[in-house]
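Much of what follows relies on a compact textual record of a protein's fold. The record below shows the convention in full:
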Amino acid sequence: MSPAPVEITVSATGRKITVPTGLFINNEFVASVDSKETIQTVNPATEEVICSIVAASAADIDVAVAAARKAFQTTWGKNVTGFERSRLINKLADLMERDAQELAELETLNNGKPVRVARDFDIGDSIQCLRYYAGWADKITGEASIDNKTKFAFTRHDPIGVCGQIIPWNYPINMWAWKVAPALACSCTIVMKPSELTPLTALKLSELVVEAGFPPGVLNTVPSYGSVGGAALSSHLDVDKVAFTGSTLTGRKIMEAAAKSNLKKVSLELGGKSPHIVFESADLDQAANWAALGILYNTGQDCTAGSRLFVQDTIYDKFIELLAQKAQALTISDGFAEAASGGPVVSKTQYDRVWSYIESGKAEGAKLLIGGQKRPGKGFFVDPTIFTDVKPTMKIVKEEIFGPVLSLAKFHSEEEVIALANDTSYGLGAGLHSKDANQCMRVSSALEAGTVWVNQYNMLNNNVPFGGKKQSGIGRELGSYALEEYTSIKAVHWNFGEKLDWPF
């Protein structure tokens, strides 16, 4: 018996949203095959329960993988043209565009981010991502190598197969699109595990997958606890590839499980402790804007958050005054408030984690420039918090916080700041601000990160690759590079002229 959907009323807008509560397998919402366990979803702005949904068990993952395998072998995989895949992906993008406001309000309820940000940035970018990869679907081709006398050889870029995709809670719709779009373009099938904290929009998007006309089993959605569903996908013998965005600790576990099972392909987009550098020649007002965005966008819940800010000593006093003004001008509130630029952090666990780091910064002797005081009342709100007088050994400088907490230090020379910036086990993002073109080239080359921003920060494009170095992950998302994560290259040697003598 299928679990009944629930109707959620958004009190701020009066909108009624019907949300499926079952597991999405073979284009249907179904109950667990062997478990009564549920996941309670919570509104982080009010701390109230939104609804409960079915939590997938390891046996449910088996059912979803089997559905994905059947689709791969029959209606998808090598059995569908690139033109048809492109048409379906574009149709899905159209439906997301049609329902953008409803999806944004549901995202805000479950994740906390402002409706405006969810709609105009996350969902707007996700629609573009789908359309970008729809354009690639009929252009995934190999190469040819010819020996005119005896042989013709060519390569095929085959779909890798059934893909387990495990996405985080900080950008639930955006990360869904980043994973789904290239996989579908390459003709892979998917078992999607959204975060147990933010599963509602992934379930709602599953309805659009049916409406768009995708065959059953091509995309399956199995909300589950990470230790159950994520572990089952990572170690599954019939999953060909696993893609994960989240913490470095979990990424290690996934890679180990993949290696110990069937040595499936793995791509990981993991944590960061990104350096952000302001040189004395920079446009200070613009640099302050980008530095504030770098740590405060999405309430700091961003793997590329510019959480270590280095400011040249000659402009330090002027800049930190400017930065404090920028940070304090930002409105952090319920995401349904019109003026909101940021919302609460996603959960009580995350709230407690961020505050433990703020208390650690105080205890280790860092000086508070702004913030660092708890708000009264309900909601997991953390106001912008900036520490100065930090030392490289402090916990707030070394570890990823994933909240609106900035460590600010001064530096004297270019060589000094490059060493400070690269003094981390992470390597996801980095940024610098300077009007000296030679300096921009030198420093961007020297920074050890998968993405370096020059005179901006945190801006990504669907046609530009994104990913990390060191313990920030392996593989790339976005751009043509993401297609490599979902294809397997086969070389075909066709002899038409060489005769083999025997014995040789």
